[in-house]
Amino acid sequence: MDPLLDFTGKVAVITGAAQGFGKLLAQELAKRGAKLVISDINEKGVLSVADEISATGADVIAMKCDVSKNDQCKLMVDSAIKAFGRVDIGVNNAGIAHEFMPLHQTDESIMDHQFAINVKGVQFGMRYQIQQMLTQGEGAILNVSSMAGIGGAARASAYSMAKHAVIGLTKTAAVEYGKANIRVNAICPFFTLTPMVTNFADDELQQKMGQGAPMKRLGEPKEIVAVMLMMLSPANTYMTGQCIAVDGGVSAF
């Protein structure tokens, strides 16, 4: 196998793995030899994903995890250590969107919910992933931000606020732990055809949303996950503190 895509024996923990990027990334890492601990608030969904992966012969553990709860994030990492002895890869993917609305109509409860899942959930995951990686002397973390974390996002102020915070956490951790050989990066997708988008946008709205990109379409999950694999690759050893836009050219404007 090409060393760039060889994850043989690597132990990865992935949140938000019942669907979307998390599910597809788990499947792709398993194909390439990784051992997995996957979680989601949707316990039934993540157990189903684990069954599919296990049927291929890969090692996988699935569990329910509410990433807004510190103790549940700790348990996920502890489970990986107990089962496999280490954590090589941490993917903090779990996240939520909110209904489009103007900033002046966005109340505190929406901001609190965004912060709890999209920011605290990333920090809690990183906290315990990094603790284990420090004992190992290496590791790679990938946080899922958004194009809304790089620039403004009209009618999505609370989401944009939270995804900007993910960028701040990513860059800060990269600076703090680079000397410990722990790489921390973030990926920033444009609208992609995951359930987070397709559940609220019909075909007509998806077409309109896609017109905002120079490529005149929305992203496909496999296109985002291909970049995630590159960013996590064991052969990619000098890339840290980066927030990579995968956006059909939006950031070129």
UniProtKB/TrEMBL annotation:
> Which keywords does the record carry?
Oxidoreductase
Q: Which Gene3D superfamilies match?
A: NAD(P)-binding Rossmann-like Domain
SUPFAM superfamilies reported for this sequence: NAD(P)-binding Rossmann-fold domains
A Pfam match is: adh_short_C2
| UniProt keyword Oxidoreductase present | yes
What Gene Ontology molecular-function terms does this entry list? oxidoreductase activity
The entry sums up its family as follows: Belongs to the short-chain dehydrogenases/reductases (SDR) family.
Full protein name? SDR family oxidoreductase
The species this protein was found in: Shewanella aestuarii
